[in-house]
Amino acid sequence: MAELHRSIKNRKGFYVKMKFFRTKNGKQENPFLIRYFKWILWFSLSFYFFVKFLNNHEPGTSSLKTTMINQSHRALSESIFHEPKDNHDLNDLKVYVYELPAKYNVDWLSNPRCSNHLFASEVAIHRALMRSEFRTFDPTEADFFFVPVYVSCNFSTVNGFPAIGHARSLLSSAVEFISSELPFWNRSNGSDHVFVASHDYGACFHAMEDRAIAAGIPEFMNNSIILQTFGVKYQHPCQNVENIIIPPYISPENVQSTLLKSPITAPRDIFAFFRGKMEVHPKNVSGRFYSKRVRTEILRKYGNDRRFYLKRHRFAGYQSEIVRSVFCLCPLGWAPWSPRLVESVALGCIPVIIADGIRLPFESTVPWPEISLTVRENDVAKLSGVLDYVAATNLSAIQRNLWDPKLRRALLFHDDVETGDATWEVLVELSKKLSSWFVVFHMELVRGTVADLASGDRLNVSSWDT
Ligand SMILES: *[C@@H]1O[C@H](CO)[C@@H](O)[C@H](O)[C@H]1NC(C)=O
Ligand SMILES: *[C@@H]1O[C@H](CO)[C@@H](O)[C@H](O)[C@H]1NC(C)=O
Ligand SMILES: *[C@@H]1O[C@H](CO)[C@@H](O)[C@H](O)[C@H]1NC(C)=O
Ligand SMILES: *[C@@H]1O[C@H](CO)[C@@H](O)[C@H](O)[C@H]1NC(C)=O
Ligand SMILES: *[C@@H]1O[C@H](CO)[C@@H](O)[C@H](O)[C@H]1NC(C)=O
Ligand SMILES: *[C@@H]1O[C@H](CO)[C@@H](O)[C@H](O)[C@H]1NC(C)=O
Ligand SMILES: *[C@@H]1O[C@H](CO)[C@@H](O)[C@H](O)[C@H]1NC(C)=O
Ligand SMILES: *[C@@H]1O[C@H](CO)[C@@H](O)[C@H](O)[C@H]1NC(C)=O
Questions:
Q1: I want to staple 423 with a disulfide (CB 3.0 to 4.6 A). Which of 34, 88, 128, 136 is the partner?
Q2: Any transmembrane segments, and where (predicted)?
Q3: Would you kindly state where each structural domain of the chain is located, as residue ranges?
């Protein structure tokens, strides 16, 4: 046996060594399996087809990136095989929250609107994490690093909208700060770092799609995890990064006080409701029209239909109108998402989503198809018929699904993380990323002997060149 073993070990030829690793959140652990194969035709063929098979696998269920490095007689292939796992344990999750100078975050709170407006999830998630049991003060045991930068609170003195022109420089200066102070950014090149980008086009930081696409995601955020309100089901440069879709911020206190006055199950006297910007003649802004003219079309078609309660002006008490409505229209604005999605669900009004291809927040918890209607942007003319049909057939089934208190909880952020609330859902999504495990295997092909291969990292490839 020993004789045979030695002769195999010393037999010259082409051999393949495969090393399998598991990685956790980008951090590679020691190999858990090493195998040697003699490089023969059937092996190369089957390996070729194996790689092809994995590469063609459904995206999302598994993915494989293969790079072949041809260093004369050594071929090295590194592949990543990704196997999502369903059971994830929140209890083990640890998030380190960076303590940044006040100019990056709390200084902005001098304007009370900062923690209350549509984009305020950047503040809400930070606050909730600071006080949560998932926070760790020891960065060496952290699974994720939260970078709390408030970029949405520089409200324009002209129109009151958040000016986000400074977002990129504020964020990049924050990253410079953390990467010079602590080793953790450099360790993973930011891939275990989490940012909030709660704007129209998320981490592209612009309200107009063409400008957002042209600007792209800042390069330094490319490897990180972005919590963003923007998401679509097709390829888009503004979501071409590891991301989690979060709901826009709606104050849970406001929802609470609206529901105290009018409970969710109270009779609803408005059939279809919309209040918001609805231009009769939308301006052509660099070739694009607000809401792709969908809102204009809604107004044109249903402005005189008494069952449609359509209002174009701001009204602070509009939540009392939502809670009186059966259907709430949620057409796109500049971006596909809108705060109406959250307000409708929170106040029990069936959201009628008109935003082709939109990706909705927390789809694994919130059963959107069972609690909302979707109407294509081009089908606005059929809206009335769709609503009538649903009202006559399965209205009470949808309302029963929608009025589940679990859904209101999932879409609202609270100052303290509550089981099942929006920050909780973010943590669940993060922990899924963590527990989806990766198998990386390295394959080396050498001309030599198994013994040469077994010498591991001391392998000197060039010494076989003769
Ligand atoms: C690998 O490199 C060697 C030498 O540089 C070359 O002769 C050979 O054709 C290459 N093989 C492949 C598959 O590219
Ligand atoms: C706030 O926005 C204005 C207008 O875009 C800009 O000039 C100013 O520098 C910003 N302020 C900060 C502190 O970034
Ligand atoms: C991280 O990398 C940057 C750029 O390479 C460097 O300037 C910085 O000193 C590094 N940080 C640490 C903590 O080593
Ligand atoms: C950022 O990531 C995307 C997708 O992974 C990639 O296509 C792009 O080239 C990257 N950009 C930079 C500057 O690294
Ligand atoms: C870190 O990520 C950035 C952005 O994707 C990339 O340009 C850079 O080369 C990466 N650096 C290292 C050391 O991997
Ligand atoms: C909108 O404006 C662009 C130029 O900014 C022009 O090319 C386009 O034809 C206009 N579209 C319509 C429908 O008027
Ligand atoms: C309600 O009916 C519509 C139209 O038939 C259907 O698409 C939808 O799935 C139904 N929803 C529920 C919750 O039953
Ligand atoms: C590898 O081989 C080259 C060329 O034969 C030699 O110069 C070098 O010292 C060797 N390296 C090691 C680590 O053995």
A1: 128
A2: 32-51
A3: 2-84+436-457, 90-249, 252-411
| Placement of tokens 């029963």 in the chain | 400
Ligand showing the shortest atom-to-Cα distance for residue 242: 4
CATH architecture of 252-411: 3-Layer(aba) Sandwich (3.40)
* C-alpha 201, offset from chain centre: 12
Give the residue, out of 284, 286, 288, 290, with the most ligand 6 atoms within 8 A of its beta carbon, to mutate for a pocket test: 284
Query: How remote is the CA of residue 459 from the centroid of ligand 8, in Å?
Result: 9
Task: Find the residues whose C-beta lies inside 6 A of ligand 2.
Answer: 154, 163, 165-166
Distance CA 321, CA 329 (A): 12
Q: CA torsion sign, 443 to 445 to 446 to 450?
A: positive
What are 82-99's pLDDT values in tens digits? 444 444 567 778 999 999
Report the predicted TM-score, pTM, of the whole model to 2 decimal places. 0.76
Q: What is the pLDDT of residues 52-88, one digit of tens each?
A: 555 554 443 333 444 443 333 344 444 444 444 444 5
The protein residue with its alpha carbon nearest to ligand 5, atom 8, reads 189
Q: 460 in ligand 8 pocket by Cβ < 6 Å?
A: yes
